[in-house]
Design a protein that fits this description.
about 140 residues, mainly beta, Jelly Rolls, five-stranded antiparallel sheet, binds thymidine-5'-diphosphate, QdtA_cupin_dom, isomerase activity
Length: about 140
């Protein structure tokens, strides 16, 4: 179910010979208020991030610079997104297992999150994720 709720979102892009500009408003371009922003950078070649799901958190992931792959998994099916556009985000619904890898040199992964950091919201064991996702 969660994978069907995840989607690609192209944000407004103001093109300008001086450089392009993209903006994102909570509850307008994305379906939640932004409570937290974090970013991954200086990712060494071959490193993988993610490897968890969130019980309630919703997120948007954007390749601000460079490129990387995002693998989403709802416990039934998987989908791979190759991100390399600064104006494009992937909305990740709650209860979606995510993995990030194949980072290019200099890649920056921006994450917009619906809640403050809360370790108890994480599911870090895939077996537990499958149990919760399956409603067992
Ligand atoms: P984690 O979410 O596991 O990283 P990723 O999914 O990108 O591989 O977080 C890594 C560490 O950073 C973990 O110890 C928790 C900490 N952390 C915070 O303290 N605040 C935050 O907002 C985030 C996202 C992580």
């Amino acid at each position: 179910m969660a994978l069907r709720d995840c989607k690609q979102v192209d944000f407004p892009k103001i093109t300008d010979p001086r450089g392009n500009l993209t903006f994102i408003e909570g509850m307008n371009h994305i379906p939640f208020d932004i409570k937290r922003v974090y970013y991954l950078y200086d990712v060494p070649g071959g490193a993988e991030r993610g490897g968890h799901a969130h019980r309630n958190l919703q997120q948007i992931i954007i390749a601000m610079s460079g490129s990387f792959d995002l693998i989403l998994d709802d416990g039934t099916e998987k989908k791979v997104y190759s991100l390399n556009r600064s104006y494009r985000g992937i909305y990740i619904a709650s209860m979606t297992w995510r993995e990030l890898g194949n980072f290019s040199s200099g890649a920056v992964c921006l994450v917009l999150a619906s809640q403050a950091y809360d370790e108890s919201d994480y599911i870090r064991e895939y077996s537990e994720f499958l149990e919760v996702a399956g409603g067992k």
